[in-house]
Specification:
Distance between the termini: 48 Å
Radius of gyration: 36 Å
Largest sheet: 6 strands, mixed
Strand content: 5-15%
Bound molecules: adenosine-5'-diphosphate
């Protein structure tokens, strides 16, 4: 594990960690439009809140300056009263508005996780299965998740930054509006040497100081952010382990194994040895060391600048350029201008750092669906006369160099019972996955009624098949919805399918009948079904779909011998007119099939009826049959 850890760290550290401004702008533009499709209100209210929040202090500053001027000048009672009233009214109204907008913004913000997850889920659910199954896709998506789990990097930061940038922008605009007259109001000639403050050079120096503070702090930020991104990259694998560990300890299904094999010693202990999220972690070391120093320097620069501002404004007031009340306004405005510039530059740098993670996100969202999507409709035949043909099909899984199916050629027709047998890993399940077009053959073609299955409309083609995979999945929903795979169901048909699958007895014992939930995840009254019961429910689900083909991958593996016997004796009733493709290790259960194909190391090496295959004494089928039979005959 530590080798992988180091490898991953090296790989991450070598890349470019902060995007160029141009690339960052392009990525953010795309991200904002993606967000806006999901949550337009979030941007609207974030923008409004940012505007009010930025403007609020300026209003107080502006009117307070007028009040102070009056106190220091004519001291008219009604004028004083007017300014106090204005200050109070404006502050109260703007504060109320700000609080209100904040709440609405927060309401949108609280749903942001949902929006992000919907964007991911939409993409994943619409990916070709073969692409989803590709390790590279998994790796990429996992990196996006790691970045998000690490520090909200990626999409979630986009709207934070949007609000931040707007706030700084309004801050700058407000500050400019309040500080323009600082530069235009002149120190009178009578002030002697202080008239030097009227020189454009002085103004230029002050503006350069503002800019310099922003650029200096932003450069310090860049160093810090690069290092933070580098650590996030280096610790990706550890971060992934961390999230795995959270699942590891809370996953109910692992509970028994963990206890019996003390797996926590390997799992949690291994993770803990990396010290990823404690005070000795690389991130903590950065914050306590160089990071702390850089932050201190970042704080020092604006401090120095403030000294210069105070000096300039006070000297100008001293020289008689403006009254004492304006000192408050100008110092406040220029400080805010510098703060706004600084904030803007920091935000822009953060955007460049975060854009690095958007690259991965868009790489994922741009994964194309390469599977050819035909448009032919699958003929709905009342006689269900379909014929499937594999024509010289070879296949290797995405990301793998070795073929798992070699030149498979075979035909079978509807109404037939086809058994697929062979040792583990011989390619039986892969054969089914190709038949259902979860993958396309690497070479050769599969035909339905003489037409390449790629030419059919994909959804329609899938509707022809009902499959019970070995690792079928049930949902924590009522039994009826599990069988119907839908919220709306025909209860009579559900009952009929459950009866055919042999669940009549269990059904009678259920507290809420068809409404009983499978599993206790979401309902206390749910039932924990056994492996065999689950398999029967999956069989009932495949019957409910009423497709022309029913494919059963080891359908009785979890059943007890009596239940297995029942399924076989009623197999014809269960399957009806459908074509049944049946994978099993128990050769005795294949005898009732019309046709049997034998897989060995990815090739079909025999095809025929049970009797035909058994008569070939040196054939694989006879070998497998005899190997099983000897345990029963002895
Ligand atoms: P069977 O059903 O006969 O036990 P499978 O069709 O499941 O065999 O597997 C055939 C071969 O394909 C095995 O070597 C297996 O390791 C490999 N294989 C199965 N699924 C995948 C996958 N998703 N990616 C890569 N290889 C796979």
């Amino acid at each position: 594990m530590s080798r992988i850890w180091k490898k991953s760290a090296k790989k991450g550290a070598s890349g470019e960690l902060i995007c160029s401004p141009k690339e960052a702008f392009r990525l953010y533009k795309r991200a904002v439009s993606l967000w806006r499709q999901k949550a337009g209100g979030l941007f609207l209210f974030t923008g409004l809140h940012a505007a009010v929040k930025a403007v609020n202090p300026y209003c107080a500053l502006y009117f307070t300056a007028r009040l102070l001027n009056e106190i220091a000048g004519l001291r008219r009672r009604e004028e004083l009263f007017k300014w106090v009233l204005v200050i109070l009214t404006v502050t109260v109204v703007l504060s109320l508005l700000q609080a209100l907008l904040y709440r609405v913004k927060m309401a949108y913000e609280s749903a942001q996780w949902n929006y992000t997850q919907t964007i991911y889920a939409d993409k994943i659910l619409n990916l070709d299965f073969c692409t989803l199954d590709d390790p590279k896709t998994y790796e990429l998506f996992s990196q996006i998740e790691q970045a998000e789990n690490w520090a909200g990097h990626g999409l979630p930061r986009v709207y934070w930054h949007f609000g931040w940038i707007l706030e700084e922008l309004f801050k700058i605009l407000g500050a400019v509006a309040l500080s323009v007259s600082l530069f235009t109001m002149k120190v009178p000639e009578s002030a002697g040497k202080l008239t030097v403050l009227n020189s454009p050079v002085c103004i230029l120096v002050l503006l350069l100081c503002i800019l310099g503070t922003g650029v200096g702090c932003s450069a310090l930020d860049k160093v810090m952010l690069s290092r933070e991104n580098q650590i996030a990259e280096e610790e990706k694998f550890g971060n992934r382990c961390f999230w795995w560990m959270l699942d590891f300890s809370s996953n109910q299904k692992r509970g028994m194994d963990i206890r019996l094999y003390e797996q926590e010693k390997g799992g949690i202990a291994c993770f803990q040895s990396y010290h990823l999220f404690d005070t000795t972690s690389p991130l903590a070391a950065l914050l306590k060391g160089v990071g702390g120093l850089l932050r201190a320097l970042s704080a020092l620069l604006p401090g120095l600048f403030m000294g210069i501002v105070y000096l300039y404004v006070c000297l100008k007031a001293w020289g008689g350029a403006f009254g004492i009340g304006m000192v408050t306004q100008y110092i406040g405005a220029v400080t805010a201008l510098s703060g706004g510039m600084l904030g803007m530059m920091t935000a822009l740098m953060q955007i460049r750092a975060n854009a690095f993670y958007l690259r991965e996100l868009f790489q994922f969202l741009d994964i194309p669906n390469d599977m050819y999507q035909g448009s032919l409709t699958v003929e709905k035949r009342s006689d269900r006369k379909y014929e499937i043909e594999f024509r010289d099909v070879s296949f290797r899984y995405p990301g793998s160099d070795s073929y798992v199916l070699h030149h498979v050629s075979m035909k079978f027709q509807v109404g037939q019972r086809l058994a697929v047998v062979g040792q583990n890993g011989s390619g039986k399940t892969t054969f089914i996955k190709l038949l259902c077009r979860l993958y396309d053959p690497t070479e050769g073609s599969i035909l339905l009624n003489g037409i390449d299955i790629r030419k059919y409309n994909y959804r329609e083609y899938l509707s022809v098949f009902s499959v019970v995979f070995q690792d079928f999945q049930l949902l924590s929903l009522p039994l009826s919805q599990n069988v119907a795979a839908s919220k709306v169901c025909d209860e009579q048909r559900v009952l009929e399918c459950l009866r055919k699958a042999g669940l009549e007895e269990m059904l009678q014992a259920l507290p809420k009948g068809l409404g009983t939930s499978i599993g206790k995840d979401y309902e206390e009254g749910g039932i924990q079904v056994s492996g065999g019961q689950g398999q029967k429910i999956a069989i009932a689900r495949s019957l409910y779909k009423d497709a022309a083909f029913i494919i059963l991958d080891e359908p009785t593996a979890a059943l007890d011998p009596v239940a297995e016997y029942e399924i076989y004796t009623r197999f014809n009733e269960i399957v009806g007119e459908r074509t049944a493709v049946y994978i099993s290790h128990r050769l005795s259960s294949c005898r009732f099939c019309d046709e049997i194909i034998v897989f060995h190391e990815g090739s079909v090496i025999q095809q025929g009826s049970h009797e035909e295959l058994l008569s070939k004494k040196d054939g694989k089928y006879a070998e497998l049959w005899n190997a099983q039979a000897k345990y029963y005959t002895k």
